[in-house]
Amino acid sequence: MVWLIVGLQTMLMLGMTVLYPTFQEPDEIAHIDYVLAHRHGEWFDAIGERQYQSGVIAANQTVPGIQFRKHIAHVAGKVPVPRSLRKSFDALGTAPAAPGTAFPNQMTQHPPLYYGLAAGFSYLLPNFDNQRFDIQTFWLRLLSVLLLAPVPLLIYGAARRATRNHSVAVVAAILPLSIPTYLRTGGSVTNDSLITVLTIALAALLVRVAWGDLGRRTAILVGVVWGAALLTKGFALVLPPAIVLAYLLGAGGTFKERIRVAWPGVVLSGVIGCVIGAWWWIRNLVIYGKVQPDGFATLSDAQRQLGFGKDRAGAGEIDFFNSFFRTLGQRMWGGLGLIDTPSLPHAFLYTMSAVLVALLVVSVVLGAPGLRTRLHVSGWTAGRALSLILPTLLTLGAMYVGARGRYLRGHQLIGINSRYVVPTLLGLMICAAVVLDVAAGRLRRWLPPTILLASMAFIGWSVYCVLNIEMSSTDPNHTQRLDDAVHFVVGWAPFPGKVSAAIVLLAGAFAVATLVALVVGAARRDPDDLVPLSEPEPSERLPIGSEAS
After folding, report:
1. How far is it, in rounded angstroms, from Cα 206 to Cα 224?
2. How confident is the model at residue 548 (pLDDT cuts 50, 70, 90)?
3. Residue 195 pLDDT more than 90?
4. Nearest Cα to Cα of residue 35 among 126, 99, 129
5. 450 CB-near residues (< 8 Å, 6+ apart)
6. Residue 344 has what pLDDT?
7. Dihedral of CA 74/78/82/83: which sign?
8. Residue, of 367 and 372, whose pLDDT is higher
9. In a 3-state reduction of DSSP, which class is residue 444?
10. CA gap 518, 451 in Å, rounded
11. Could you report the per-residue pLDDT of 385-397, keeping only the tens digit for each?
């Protein structure tokens, strides 16, 4: 079953590579340019030194409706450039863009792992340099699809280990398919794809740890994965508390006993992670005097206001708090187009985000000793629920602190994006799936197909909004607008219409096949045979330093 979910996710993400023309993902132009920089051997540009490749700027100017443009709705009024006339990035120009034509590439603030990996991947593709820029972009987007392909497996495996319940694990693996931002991440050129799979892999390992696996091999894997995440994006810097909490929970006993048993694993994983990835952040501290420099640090105030909006009157803490969480709530399931445009009704998006928060709170409450016994969820504790949610809380804290200072000084609210939360989905999805399973009671066998059907309906609605608002023309006839949108999408797609149609049809086929399989599985299960959440079997791996480790 989980393999069908993997196939469905893959096809949905491939569908996103067709739906959105090149550069349509926020910052995709910057990521593409920096991958090309790494192809050309430019690995360590200082902040403000990387000027965009002129060919990237030239390609960017041919595609309508991209980031930072004022008119991004109804872009179908511009006829797509014929495929025969599209050139490669290098053919359009390899020299740095002329000063004043674009901001410096801010991706110099990020570590090099994703860009080196993407550049290496491009060398595996024959004649990559000479292919059209939209084909080159498709191949780089395909890397993101491949990187995120294991995510349903990781979520399913972690949920199954935490709950010993197949139905809960399937629901947890399906839930991310309801988040457009997650699917778009897989269909875009972005380092968010790599940090997502690494953070989810780390979270899956921490589930093993929190549920009792304190062995040396797991500690080594935790260190290696965390180290790779450190070389991908700065949000990995906030994860050590989650690692420590997982080890304390997995150790058991009194607090002193937990520390005694947990510290070898914490130290081993921490040392390995620091050896692999901490050097980049130490380098930043030495060169820039701060761990995470601002990629736009060299811009003047006038340039910043031109790019991000004019300054306004300063605001207080309460105003920032409200603005932060209102914006985040809108964007969690609202990342359909370019940040906020197009968007579904905001009230609906706020409701979905509020429901998620409520599910997370209830998941912690379910871990109370009295409720655990009454509801037969012996394997679920408040501490373990909190350990699953902690990576998200740490990430939100980093976002909050990062945006607060600028906002209080009167700058526009930036740096609040749902794609920053996507890497922490594993714990959120498991907690939500546990609560939904308990709430469903004897109907829990129908929960997986219901969640899948709701997710696909929501994604279908989202795609409709993108076509109707962003990709359509301004024709007053609704049917004609949608027809223009489809022709626009097919015209800008990297491959001919038949290939694009095949991708869409395969995505639909996987959705139907997965739904049928879930319905058949639910119909065959006897409600009396559905085992509530229970305590996982004790880990066979003893703590580091024990006789059998």
Report:
1. 13
2. very low
3. yes
4. 129
5. none
6. 87
7. negative
8. 367
9. helix
10. 10
11. 999 999 999 999 9
Higher per-residue pLDDT: 339 or 251: 251
Q: In sequence order, what are the beta bridge partners of 96?
A: 53
Sequence-ordered alpha helix ranges (H) in 20-132? 28-39, 54-62, 89-92, 113-123
pLDDT in tens, 432-462: 999 999 999 888 899 999 999 999 999 999 9
Q: Is residue 100 part of a domain?
A: yes
Q: What is the H or E stretch that residue 140 is in?
A: helix 133-148
Q: Which residues of 287-308 are buried (b: 16+ CB within 10 A; e: fewer)?
A: eeeeebbebbeebeeeebeeeb
Q: Collapsing DSSP states into helix, strand and coil, what is residue 96?
A: strand
Give the position of tokens 């139907």. Answer: 512
Distance CA 38, CA 115 (A): 6
Instruction: Note down the domain range covering 418.
Output: 2-292+308-529
Split at pLDDT 50, 70, 90, the class of 67 is low
Asked if the model's pLDDT at residue 528 lies above 50, the reply is no
CB atoms within 10 A of CB 374: 9
What SS3 state is found at 48?
Answer: coil
Residue 299 lies in a domain: no
Contact of 210 with 426, CB cutoff 8 Å: no
Inside any domain, residue 455: yes
Alpha-carbon distance of 459 to 470, in angstroms, equals 16
Say how far apart CA 267 and CA 547 lie, in whole Å: 19
The reply to whether omega before 180 is within 30° of 0 (cis) is no
User: What's the confidence (pLDDT) of residue 529?
Assistant: 45
Q: Contact at 8 Å (CB) between 236 and 230?
A: yes
Q: Are 379 and 535 in contact (CB under 8 A)?
A: yes
Integer Cα distance of 522 and 77 in angstroms: 47
pLDDT beyond 80 at 315: no
Residue with the two structure tokens 């601002």: 294
Domain total for the chain?
Answer: 1
CA-to-CA distance for 519 and 36, rounded, in angstroms? 46
Residue 274's Cβ-count burial label (10 Å; 0-12, 13-18, 19+) is: middle
In three-state secondary structure terms, 338 is strand
* Residue range 113-131, pLDDT digits in tens: 999 999 999 999 999 999 9
* Integer CA distances (angstroms), 287 to 68, 131, 247, 282, 506, in order: 30, 38, 34, 9, 50
* Partners of 341 in beta bridges: 338
166 occurs within a structural domain: yes
Read off the tokens for 373: 């016994």
Mean pLDDT of 205-215: 95
